[in-house]
């Protein structure tokens, strides 16, 4: 078993480059004009997704020692028949998203209502099921 | 539905209504599907749900006054509480209580960042603030300071510090805590140190009050529910640079350690770790194959772990170092460069054998490492950690590895033996905040879809606790379901420590309502069960 310095350094550096949190301040900025309820919900959904989901559901293959857990597992499961990244999927249903977020999966702990409120979850669902996809 | 021990359904229903009157109906969770989210997602009993420690309900206050009222209600009905900051202590129990039937006090909604003072270098935060939220706040407010974070970042700086967890880049997070606000079992609010003064302006600055210091009393403890914490914080380092020194001879580790201790003890370097790269090349401890030569694996399967002569022959053959130490320095660029140049020169002057290398620059901000390791390792149902502390000497490094390997050999667990191989921590915690003189061994136990295997591993865990504890290697923290075992090793003076803490607990919390069983400290009525 090894916890080598060079690996730790490489992992730290590279993971940081891929970190969703590095640019979080910019991502949370609301547009200066043209807001609507729908747009607000989508923006809010993106913010919540970035905070709670993107760490494991970010782009493959990732830049660290290990791939993003969720994207990697979905890639293994679907073997190219569906995108590995949730934000690239067009087949996610509100019911599926709600169930997985609230009940969790192996590796993925469920998210509690004190973390992602029902309103937050509705916004994430809107973000992941939005049309047209951007 | 799980009920608190000795509490009827009817009484519990009244208590839940009282909780709801305090925090609102929406923030008392008692439906099975809601309560299940407070189970340990990585429980060692994940495929044996009947044996899991589970909550009866959860209540989520937003204000200190609400926490006080929750504690009053718990006292009235004799309902055990289990407080969590964000409940993401995965690998050490998550948000699951020591005592089944406890009501979780979920502090996630207490998520205010009360003050960030960049002139004096401190912050005051509530327990529900996560590392990610703190980082985002710093970004949005152009605060050029960094919180010290573990991965993943959805955990709590307060919760992590109280569990004496580690963060990157500063290491021991509790060492940065200088003041706490705590709701006691009698529902009073206490502030530690200078917070005891009516004008608490020095609360985040000077950690002591007058008389016995209570700060540590509230870490890894069940003496209160922490509602605010004052941390010292550091500016982002202009440069955080690693280094390593390595050799093909085991014995060279001694002069390396002597020299790096000298440099660390006068803050030329910020911490360092030691290891044996060739020995550690065979195992990953997480179900993936190592990359080392097969001869190394064969040597580590032997009780003696192979002689120094055998290892040195192999090291020369494959040209992988046998001895290695590494660390880092952080600060303004010219200072860091001068420190590492001084370190290089000092090692040369002292004729320390080995190849000195300057490593990569670390990012000047914390990193939240994702769950990627779990995705690619041998099992993805979860994991927990055996975490004993040992001395940063060659003798202790080899002795604890030998002890663990022999427990694995005795247990006949050849799979774990090969996966574990040999533990090295060649960097320690890079750039640790304090002059650590110890090392923590992190041995990962995977959870499988096989109850029998999980049970054998749990027994193995307990054997390791005993075997290492007898030799002075107690754990620095422990998963909830093993805390009684881990605490039992601190038995000096006929368990004088535990008995003293129990005496205090009985006095401070006569009804035994606050996190009963935390770190092996139980109320009188539950001891010995």
Secondary structure: elements and pairs:
The complex is a heterodimer of chains A (134) and B (529).
Chain A: E1 2-3, H1 5-18, H2 24-28, H3 37-52, H4 69-78, H5 94-103, H6 118-128
Chain B: H1 9-23, E1 28-29, H2 32-35, E2 57-59, H3 64-77, E3 81-84, E4 103-106, E5 113-117, E6 122-125, H4 131-140, E7 145-146, H5 157-162, E8 166-167, E9 171-172, E10 177-183, E11 189-191, E12 225-232, E13 234-235, E14 239-247, H6 253-265, E15 272-275, H7 277-280, H8 294-301, H9 308-318, E16 323-331, H10 333-349, E17 355-362, H11 372-376, E18 383-386, E19 389-391, H12 394-410, H13 414-420, E20 424-425, E21 438-440, E22 443-446, H14 451-469, H15 483-488, H16 492-508
Parallel strand pairs in B: 2-4, 3-4
Antiparallel strand pairs in B: 1-2, 5-6, 6-12, 7-13, 8-9, 10-11, 10-12, 14-16, 14-17, 15-16, 18-22, 19-21
Helix pairs in contact in B: 1-3, 12-14
Task: Give the overall pLDDT of chain A as a whole number.
Answer: 76
Largest sheet of chain B: 5 strands, antiparallel
Tell me the Rg of chain A in angstroms: 16 Å
**Strand residue content of chain A:** under 5%
As residue ranges, the low-confidence spans of chain B are: 428-434
Number of strands of chain A: 1
What series of H and E elements makes up the topology of chain A?
EHHHHHH
| Mean pLDDT rating of chain B | 92
Number of helices of chain B: 16
User: What's the helical proportion of residues of chain B?
Assistant: 25-40%
Written overview of the protein:
The complex is a heterodimer of chains A (134) and B (529). By secondary structure, chain A is mainly α. Chain A has one domain (2-20, 34-128). Chain A is built from 6 helices and 1 strand; from the N terminus they run E-H-H-H-H-H-H. Chain A starts with a strand and ends in a 6-residue tail after the last helix. With 529 residues, chain B is α+β, with helices and mostly antiparallel strands. Chain B is 33% helix and 18% strand. In chain B, the strands form 7 sheets. Chain B has a 5-stranded antiparallel beta sheet. The longest helix of chain B is centred in the last third of the chain and has 19 residues, at 451-469. Residues 428-434 of chain B have low confidence and may be disordered. At the A-B interface, strand 1, helix 1, helix 2 and helix 4 of A face helix 4, strand 16, strand 17, helix 11 and strand 20 of B. Strand 1 of chain A pairs parallel with strand 20 of chain B, so a sheet runs across the interface.
């Amino acid at each position: 078993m090894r916890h080598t310095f060079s690996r730790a350094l490489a992992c730290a550096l590279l993971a940081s480059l891929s970190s969703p949190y590095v640019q979080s301040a910019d991502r949370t900025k609301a547009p200066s004009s043209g807001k609507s309820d729908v747009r607000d919900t989508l923006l809010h959904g993106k913010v919540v997704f970035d905070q709670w989901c993107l760490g494991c559901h970010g782009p493959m293959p990732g830049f660290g020692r290990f791939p993003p857990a969720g994207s990697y597992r979905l890639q293994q499961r679907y073997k190219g028949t569906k995108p590995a990244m949730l934000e690239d999927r067009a087949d996610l249903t509100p019911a599926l998203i709600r169930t997985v977020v609230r009940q969790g999966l192996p590796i993925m702990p469920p998210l509690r209502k004190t973390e992602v409120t029902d309103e937050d979850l509705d916004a994430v669902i809107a973000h992941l099921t939005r049309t047209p996809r951007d | 539905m799980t009920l608190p021990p000795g509490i009827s359904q009817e009484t519990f229903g009244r208590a839940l209504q009282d909780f709801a009157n305090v925090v609102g109906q929406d923030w008392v969770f008692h439906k099975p599907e809601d309560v299940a989210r407070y189970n340990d997602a990585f429980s060692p009993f994940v495929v044996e749900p009947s044996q899991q420690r589970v909550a009866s309900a959860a209540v989520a206050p937003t204000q200190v006054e609400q926490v006080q009222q929750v504690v009053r209600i718990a006292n009235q009905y004799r309902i055990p509480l289990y407080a969590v900051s964000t409940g993401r202590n995965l690998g050490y129990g998550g948000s699951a209580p020591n005592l089944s039937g406890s009501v979780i006090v979920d502090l996630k909604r207490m998520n205010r960042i009360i003050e960030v003072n960049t002139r004096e270098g401190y912050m005051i935060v509530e327990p529900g603030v996560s590392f990610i939220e703190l980082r985002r706040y710093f970004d949005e407010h152009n605060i050029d300071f960094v919180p010290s974070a573990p991965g993943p970042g959805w955990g709590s700086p307060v919760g992590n510090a109280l569990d004496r967890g580690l963060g990157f880049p500063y290491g021991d997070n509790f060492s940065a805590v200088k003041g706490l606000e705590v709701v006691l079992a009698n529902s009073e609010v206490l502030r530690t140190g200078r917070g005891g003064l009516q004008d608490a302006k020095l609360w985040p600055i000077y950690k002591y009050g007058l008389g016995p210091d209570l700060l540590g009393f509230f870490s890894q403890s069940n003496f209160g529910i922490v509602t605010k914490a004052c941390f010292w914080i550091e500016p982002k380092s202009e440069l955080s640079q690693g280094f390593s020194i390595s050799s093909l001879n085991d014995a060279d580790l001694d002069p390396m350690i002597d020299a790096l201790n000298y440099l660390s003890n006068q803050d030329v370097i910020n911490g360092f770790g030691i290891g044996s790269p060739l020995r550690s090349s065979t195992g990953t401890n997480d179900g993936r194959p190592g990359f080392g030569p097969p001869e190394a694996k064969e040597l580590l399967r032997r009780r003696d772990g192979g002689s120094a002569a055998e290892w040195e022959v192999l090291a020369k053959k494959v040209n992988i170092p046998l001895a290695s130490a590494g660390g880092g320095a952080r600060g303004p660029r010219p200072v860091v460069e001068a420190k590492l140049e001084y370190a290089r020169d000092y090692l040369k002057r002292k004729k320390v054998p080995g190849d000195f290398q300057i490593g990569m620059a670390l990012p000047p901000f914390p990193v939240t490492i994702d769950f990627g390791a779990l995705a690619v390792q041998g099992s993805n149902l979860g994991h927990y950690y055996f975490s004993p502390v040992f001395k940063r000497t060659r003798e202790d490094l080899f002795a604890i590895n030998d002890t663990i390997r022999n427990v694995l050999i005795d247990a006949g667990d050849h799979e774990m033996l090969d996966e574990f191989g040999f533990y090295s921590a060649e960097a320690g915690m890079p750039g640790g905040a304090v002059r650590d003189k110890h090392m923590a061994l992190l041995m990962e136990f995977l959870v499988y879809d096989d109850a029998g295997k999980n049970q054998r591993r749990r027994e193995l865990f307990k054997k390791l606790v005993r075997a290492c504890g007898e030799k002075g290697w107690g754990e620095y923290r422990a998963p909830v379901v093993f805390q009684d075992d881990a605490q039992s090793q601190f038995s000096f003076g006929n368990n004088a420590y535990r008995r003293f803490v129990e005496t205090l607990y009985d006095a401070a919390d006569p009804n035994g309502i606050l996190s009963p069983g935390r770190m092996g400290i139980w109320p009188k009525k539950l001891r010995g069960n």
